[in-house]
Specification:
Layout lengths: L2 H17 L10 H8 L3 H7 L4 H4 L18 H13 L5 H7 L4 H13 L13 H8 L10 H5 L18 H12 L10 H6 L4 H12 L2
Helix pairs in contact: 3-7, 5-6, 5-7, 8-12, 10-12
The chain binds heme C (2 copies).
Length: about 220
């Protein structure tokens, strides 16, 4: 092969690699799952002193556009902390919060927050029929699967990377779905939430946020 072809090919490989940049560096192997599961809640509680100012004393945020962490799946929280650290999820504030955390710290924090009681539901689901339909039935015309298929019938999340949504701050919920829509948040493996969010209207997102915060 002549040099030009080699140069062109390696250029192509570099750009293909950039496009195929994975959404996250976290890969759920049995070892990785076990590592998170064995996080030390007591150590996590100590470390969480720097988090409570924003995420609330018991992991229940008092700021509408800051997420609650209480009762969240440890594996989901762990993945988000890793993603902030590696820059796969970009946020200036959170990025600076995680720079000093080791893998062990992240597992400890994730397990600690998972042991706290989930935020109390706020508001009522009456008059949120449209959101309820999307959650339970989805919309075949838009190839929109029901949210419940992944996030669980009660919005409590599912294994590994699918978060609990029940009781989450509605303003944060809207903000993060908008970030997926605009590709500003792109740490969802397989682009699942980016694909889905782009099919939702602003009004639907608002209703879905209220639906999950209420009961
Ligand atoms: C100064 C305020 C502040 C502090 C302190 C802070 N956070 Fe955050 N945190 C935020 C904000 C704002 C977001 C939402 C960022 C975004 O949209 O990506 C966030 C997001 C998160 C998320 C993602 C939640 C989700 O549902 O996806 C996790 C996990 C998290 N923080 C954990 C922590 C931990 C652990 C600490 C302490 C080591 C901490 N945070 C300290 C403000 C803060
Ligand atoms: C195919 C499975 C799947 C379906 C269906 C699905 N989600 Fe998700 N969702 C995920 C995964 C996986 C993540 C976490 C991605 C990551 O690691 O950042 C997520 C994250 C989210 C988040 C961010 C939570 C947080 O704390 O930051 C919100 C909000 C959300 N989904 C809402 C919805 C809504 C509303 C629907 C229905 C319209 C829905 N999802 C349908 C898989 C799914």
């Amino acid at each position: 092969m002549n040099k030009m072809v080699v140069a062109a090919l390696s250029g192509l490989l570099v750009s293909t690699a950039a496009q195929a940049e994975p959404a996250s560096k976290v890969a759920w192997t049995p070892e990785q799952l076990n590592f998170v599961k064995k996080g030390n809640a007591a150590k996590g509680k100590e470390l969480s002193a720097t988090c409570t100012g924003c995420h609330g004393e018991q992991g229940v945020s008092q700021v509408p556009n800051y997420p609650s962490l209480a009762g969240q799946l440890a594996t989901y929280t762990y993945k988000q902390l890793q993603d902030y650290k590696t820059g796969h999820r970009k946020h200036e504030l959170m990025g600076s919060m995680v720079t000093g955390l080791s893998n062990q710290d992240m597992a400890d924090l994730a397990v600690w927050f998972s042991t706290l009681p989930t935020p109390k539901p706020q508001g009522s689901r009456q008059s949120l029929a449209k959101a309820e339909f999307l959650v339970k039935k989805g919309d075949g015309k838009r190839t929109l699967p029901p949210c419940a298929v992944c996030h669980g019938a009660e919005g409590k999340g599912e294994k590994m990377d699918i978060p609990a949504l029940a009781g989450q701050q509605a303003d944060y919920f809207v903000q993060t779905l908008e970030a997926y829509q605009k590709d500003e948040r792109r740490n969802d493996i397989f682009g699942r939430m980016r694909i889905l969010s782009k099919q939702l209207t602003a009004e639907e997102i608002k209703e879905l946020a209220q639906y999950y915060q209420a009961k």
